[in-house]
Structure formats: structure tokens, C-alpha cells
């Protein structure tokens, strides 16, 4: 298979999402050095843009030079010292991953577990916090990419702070697609990824640390176990001192800058409304096709739609046909949901009316070939009705 | 300052180096998913291309999803367990960094030190190995980017293996610019960066692990402290199983693939000769201008040329004028060499006759403005003579 040009795909999986041509063009710009005044100016502007997207005033807001998982690990290893207690909400892949990372950092982990596909209820979180002797950190996954669950954060934040803990949130999939109100929710630290609702290629992980988290960083008695992710050093590299740490990924930072500009040109509110509307149209269309959502209505993410795979339908065959014949990527289930759910991402540039309708039409063509009877045109029509209603508002 | 388009620079610093238009074009290609058959094919091809550049048959050869420093940390944390003894050659920034990273991983570090700007002599290394009780790993920096020193590896490899240790080499700046003969030199593990002689933007770190290193990985009794850099997991993601770990930076991998193709289209031998010739022309030109190289002739790197800054000359003013008026980036000194040396990188796409002569001409214009008398045209003429000689060969 020739590597270039890569095949044209409509990316409706769990990420990466489609990337705007302006972001692709930014990556094709020639490089400057990482200490060039032009790059330093870009770093400063990027920090400001990220603050707006995270809805925070936090000074320590910057992209970690790795993917979302590097941001996850950065938050954990900078805040956790050996023996610290960490309460983690576990209802999918990313909560499970947080347990692994925190354990490797020497934490004593207390899990607040819930079935995959459901939220972590406040009482379960409260009980886990109560089981911990003196939790230093409470972590929740805002948007569980593995299940499509939207975790409520208001009461969780109150519970964490009442216990004297830092409140840390995984916003990998939520940032840029729904409100991530870091300051209003008193989130002490958060991390995200670039390849979801920011519609930038994968490779960077925006993080933000508030005053209490920074204080915990300063009060450490053990060095951060990771040199590459040591925020004290990264902060000086991204700060006024410009103390050399690593070489920032220049082109990826060009891309992130341009992607953030696009987010803010659209405006956060308009962007969130767009994600919501396309989600609603997709759900209407899927249900009209006889498919069933895997997450209860109040807890469905707008950007990651988990759909039950009907008994008679072959998961892999459908996804392969969508990819090869229709040029559309959707995601399969992970862990216990493998073979049981599809994950349809409507993130950033992938969340548009045209793309939702294209997927619904493709499903109408594909599902009957794989043993599922669907009324011709029903999915697209149901989606269209949602858009028509919105147009009439 | 407007961020786009970035200023046009000739990158003759310690990296990033100039990037070929084909690599920039590759990054502007639309994305596919990281589990797309097209991306999996690219991953497979990339592993093969990396093996050729590393001159190895090692199966475990792939790019880590972070910059060179992430590759450094990956090698250390995967090979070192708490209490292990590690012997590290320390004669610059990167040896010093290795000590920091290994210490954070719980290693007992024995330093084989040498003054910055000199190699670590074999007898110093032998003495350090002898001081260690039972060293598990011996690490040397092949091309010390902070000083321009080319570390010989033959005898060091013999010493490391005679002591039963793994021999690990930092090839961040050497790979693609001079021979990095992983198999012939019995290097057990090596890491590099993309933004030096591979002339790809920064953001990935190619690594290679040989059989003995893989055996050490398998024999670990403690989990690798970094989840993000856990090679056992990364290996399964890049291997046939494709077990989801993180989301590989798609566009950066497009870029690396294209950059590796360019390296191998030129051919390693031709590429090394080119780096050598441009280095020789640069040195002749610099010396004709009355400048003095900071490293003794037998140990000078071809791709990173350290030059003493004459007493009367203002380091920062010269570099600023080169950047702002001539559009050329060169590097300053680091650590004890700050203000005392310039670092001129001739890496990958930046190592050409036209670029060497452009720099020499720019220095001829710049140095007299900053208190150094130079004979007009002497630098370019001396460089030209080296090229003429080579043409006549």
C-alpha cells in the first residue's frame, strides 16, 4: 500500500477527528527554532488561548509535549508522592488507566467504581472519599471516551474539596466540545488531548494547574519521578525564563495554535451548541434506524455516541464496510464493551450536519447487508427533522 | 507579532534543522485513524526504515511519541529498576540529564566524568565501571549536542559487555548524520530525535532495543515507573496485536516516514559524506575568519560545530544580528559554555554547500560590526576551496 497520499476518511471514531485545512496548512509552514522570538510569541499566545478554552485564569496552562496519556501521567506524577492516597472514579478505560498510572507513582488508590456505561454516582464517590484516610487527590473522567458517559462534576468538586483533596479532571474528550469550566467548578488540575474536540492532530496534551495544585507541586518532598513530565521544569521552559528543557514540537504547536484560533473564532457557546445539535440529530437518526444508545439519555456525551450493536450484526464486518466502501471511520467498543458497542465521535470538525447525514445514509446502506432490516431513508429523515426544528427555533 | 506565516529562517542551530518540503507536505496530508489499515501499514514501514537508519536487525525499533528526551527517559526507565547501578559518561548537558533521569528511576549512578568539550576517555570509563559493584547499564552520549564532541564507542562497548552490562547510547544528534552502527557496535539500546540529522520536525524519538535489552525488559521485577513510556505496552501497540495504548501522533509519523525515505533515497554513505564535507568546509571557513574550534580535531562532530567566541565579541548581539538581519539561527553555549561558544548545526537538510557559504558570508558581514576584524571574503573563499578539492577528487 502506498503511504502517500493517505486515503480520504471521514473520521467519526473516538479520535483523531477531522482536521481543518487551516490547521493542516499551519503544520506545513517552515520551522523556526524553539528559542526563536517568533516561537516564543506563539508559546505565549497559545497559553492565553488555552486559558480561554479551559475557562480559567490559571497561569500554569500549557501543552505537554506528548499525547493525552502523557498529560494524564503528568498530572498524576506531579501531584502524587509515594504513599499519597488518590481516589479515582473508575467506569471505563481511562479511569482504569488512571489507577495504573497512580499506582506506578506510588499512590494508594481508592476506587470509586461504577459499571461501564454509567456515571460514577456522587454517593459512590462520597463513600470512596470516606474510605480513604486523607485523600490528596480525587480524579474523575469528565468524558469517558470508552463508554460515551458524561460525568457530572459539581457535587464531586464539592466532595473533593470538603475532604481537603485536590480535584483533578480528565478533559481529553470534552475540551472544546462541551463546557469545561475549570475555574467555576474549582477544578485544581485538568488535562486534555488535541485530537478530539480541538480537531488538531494528536501529539500534544493541554494541561492547566490552579493555585492549589501549584502549591502542592511546590510543597513536594520527593522529586517528580518523570524528568520529561516534570512540571516545575516545563513551567520554566514555557515561562519567562525560557530555561531549556526539551525541544518543543514546533509544527505540532503551530497546529495547536491554529486549531485554538478556530475554536475561539467560532466561540465556545456556538461550538457547544453545534456539538449538541449534531449529537441530537445523530441520536434521532440512529434510533429511527432501530439502533439503541448504550448510555442513558441524561448522561450521553455530545461528542462520543455509544450505540449498542444489535445481536445479529457483525461488529467488525460493518465497521470494515463503512471504512472501505463509505470511507467513514467509527470506533469499536473497548474492554467489556468490545463487540457490544460502536463509538461514533462527533468531535470538532467532525461534528457537522453534512457529516451526520452522510453517516446515517451510509448506515442505511450498510446495515441491511449485515442482517439488520432498516426502513430506507428513515435515519436521514429523522436527522433532518432535528435540523429543521433547530433552523426554525 | 503575527504567528503565521512564521519568519523564514536558515536553521543552523542545535536543532530543529531545516525540513524538506516533502516532509512539510506530508504533515499537511489529511489524517486517518491510528488503527486505520493505512496507518498500520505506515507504522510497519517506518519500523523497517528505522532499522536501516540505525543499522540494526532489532525487532523492537520504533518512534516513541515524544521528543528525544522522552526517548532518553524511555530507555532509562525500561532498563533500570530501583537499586540498579548505572554508569554514565558525563561531559555535557545530556550526560548530566541522564544522571538526573536515572536517579529519579532509583538507580545508583556512577559517573564517568570528563571536562565539557572533551570525550570521556576509555580509561575513565573503565575506572567508573570498576568502581561500580555490578553495573546493569553503561550509557554514553554519541554526539554531545551541548559541546560538539564525538564520543568513540568501540572500546566502550567492549568494556560495558565485559562487565556484563547493557551498552546504551544517546544518538539524538548523530543518527542520520554519521554512522550509528547499532549491531556492529553491539549497542543494546539507543534513542534518537527526529529534529536533528533526520530533518523531521521535533516530536518523536526513534529508539531501538536489541535482544539483551529486551531480555532485561522481560526480566523486570518492578513495573516500569512510566505508563506512557512502558515499552512492553508500546511494543504491543506497534506490534501485530495492535493493543491500544495511546493515540500515535499521526501527522508526526507521516513526517517521520517521509524524512526516513529521504534519508534512504540519498543513501547513508552519501549522507555521511555530505555531512563530513560540509563540516570540513565550515571549519576551514571559520578558521580563515580567525575563529577557533572549541573541540580538538579528532573529536569534532560533523553535524554540530562548537566555535569559541572571541573575547571581544558579544555573543548575544552577534546571534541576534544573524537571526534578525541574516535570517540565520545558530546556537549559543549551554551550562559552563554559555557565552563562550557558538554551536553551529549542519544537520540533515541544513548541511549543504549553499547554506555553509551563506553562513560564512553572513559572519563576514556580522563579525566586524561586533569588534572582530576579519579579512573580507576569506571565510567563503576557504570554504569554496574545500568544495573545489572535493569536486576534483
Considering the chains and any ligands shown, give keywords for the structure:
41% helix, five-stranded mixed sheet, homodimer, seven-stranded mixed sheet, Aspartate Aminotransferase, domain 1, alpha/beta, Aspartate Aminotransferase, domain 2, 393 residues
Q: Which regions of chain A contain 5 or more consecutive residues with pLDDT less than 50? A: none
Strand order of the largest sheet of chain A: 2-10-9-8-5-3-4
Query: In which range does the helix fraction of chain A lie?
Result: 40-55%
Distance between the termini of chain A: 49 Å
The CATH architecture of the largest domain in chain A: 3-Layer(aba) Sandwich
Query: What is the number of domains of chain A?
Result: 2
Mean pLDDT of chain A: 97
Count of separate DSSP helical elements of chain A: 13
Largest interface: A-B, 74 and 76 residues
Number of strands of chain A: 14
Structural class of chain A: alpha/beta
Over all CA atoms, what is the radius of gyration of chain A? Answer: 21 Å
| Top CATH class of the largest domain in chain A | Alpha Beta
CATH H-tier superfamily of the largest domain in chain A: Type I PLP-dependent aspartate aminotransferase-like (Major domain)
H-E order of chain A: EHHEHEHEHEEEHEEEHHHHEEHEEHH
Quaternary? homodimer
Largest sheet of chain A: 7 strands, mixed
Amino acid at each position: 500500500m502506498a503511504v502517500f497520499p493517505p486515503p480520504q476518511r471521514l473520521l467519526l471514531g473516538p479520535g483523531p477527528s477531522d482536521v481543518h485545512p487551516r490547521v493542516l496548512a499551519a503544520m506545513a509552514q517552515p520551522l523556526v527554532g524553539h528559542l526563536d522570538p517568533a516561537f516564543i510569541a506563539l508559546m505565549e499566545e497559545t497559553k492565553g488561548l488555552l486559558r480561554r478554552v479551559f475557562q480559567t485564569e490559571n497561569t500554569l496552562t500549557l501543552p505537554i509535549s506528548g499525547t493525552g496519556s502523557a498529560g494524564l501521567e503528568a498530572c498524576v506524577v506531579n501531584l502524587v508522592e509515594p504513599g499519597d492516597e488518590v481516589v479515582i472514579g473508575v467506569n471505563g478505560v481511562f479511569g482504569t488507566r488512571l489507577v495504573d498510572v497512580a499506582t506506578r507513582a506510588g499512590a494508594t488508590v481508592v476506587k470509586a467504581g461504577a459499571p461501564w456505561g454509567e456515571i460514577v454516582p456522587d454517593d459512590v464517590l462520597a463513600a470512596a472519599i470516606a474510605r480513604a484516610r486523607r485523600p490528596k487527590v480525587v480524579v474523575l473522567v469528565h468524558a469517558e471516551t470508552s463508554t460515551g458517559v458524561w460525568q457530572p462534576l459539581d457535587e464531586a468538586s464539592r466532595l473533593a474539596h470538603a475532604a481537603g483533596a485536590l480535584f483533578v479532571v480528565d478533559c481529553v474528550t470534552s475540551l472544546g466540545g462541551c463546557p469545561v469550566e475549570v475555574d467555576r467548578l474549582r477544578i485544581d488540575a485538568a488535562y486534555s488531548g488535541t485530537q478530539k474536540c480541538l480537531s488538531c492532530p494528536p501529539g500534544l496534551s493541554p494541561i492547566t494547574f490552579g493555585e492549589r495544585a501549584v502549591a502542592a507541586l511546590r510543597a513536594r518532598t520527593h522529586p517528580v519521578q518523570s524528568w520529561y513530565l516534570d512540571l516545575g521544569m516545563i513551567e520554566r521552559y514555557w515561562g519567562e525564563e525560557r530555561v531549556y528543557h526539551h525541544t518543543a514540537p514546533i509544527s505540532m504547536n503551530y497546529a495547536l495554535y491554529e486549531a485554538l484560533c478556530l475554536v475561539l473564532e467560532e466561540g465556545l457557546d456556538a461550538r457547544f451548541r453545534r456539538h449538541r445539535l449534531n449529537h441530537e440529530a445523530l441520536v434521532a437518526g440512529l434510533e429511527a434506524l432501530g439502533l439503541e444508545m448504550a448510555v442513558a439519555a441524561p448522561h450521553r456525551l455530545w461528542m462520543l455516541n455509544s450505540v449498542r450493536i444489535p445481536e445479529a450484526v457483525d461488529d467488525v464486518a460493518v465497521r470494515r464496510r463503512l471504512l472501505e466502501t463509505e470511507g467513514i471511520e467509527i470506533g469499536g467498543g473497548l474492554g467489556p464493551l468490545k463487540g457490544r458497542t460502536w463509538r461514533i465521535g462527533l468531535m470538532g470538525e467532525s461534528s457537522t450536519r453534512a457529516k451526520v447525514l452522510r453517516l446515517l445514509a451510509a448506515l442505511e446502506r450498510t446495515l441491511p447487508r449485515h442482517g439488520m432490516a432498516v426502513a430506507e431513508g428513515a435515519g436521514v429523515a429523522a436527522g433532518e427533522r432535528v435540523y429543521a426544528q433547530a433552523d426554525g427555533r
